[in-house]
Please model this.
Amino acid sequence: SCDCPTGHVWLGERCQVRERLTSKEICETAYAPARWDTVRRRCLCPSEPVSTVWIDQECRAVSVVSEAVACSAEANGGRWNQDLATCVCGAGKWDRAARLCR
Model:
C-alpha cells in the first residue's frame, strides 16, 4: 500500500481523507486490518496478538481504552452507567475484558 500522509488512508488507488470515509470503507483497508460484520454493521478488530477494539475509525488496544469510551463508541453503541460502572448495551451483554457488547 501507499504511505499516505497523516489523516489519509490508501483506498481506491489513492490517498483519501480519513474523516470523509465511513467506518465500513476504512475497516478492511491496510490502515485498519479488520473485517466488517455485515450483521451487526460494525468493524471487528483483531484479537491477536493484542486485543483491540474499533474506536474513532481505528483498532486500538483495549489496554489503553477506558470502558466508558469503548462502551459509547461506534463499535458498541452502548451507554455507560456511572452508578453501576458498566456498559448498558443495546444488544447483547458487556464483555469487560474485550470492551465489546456481545
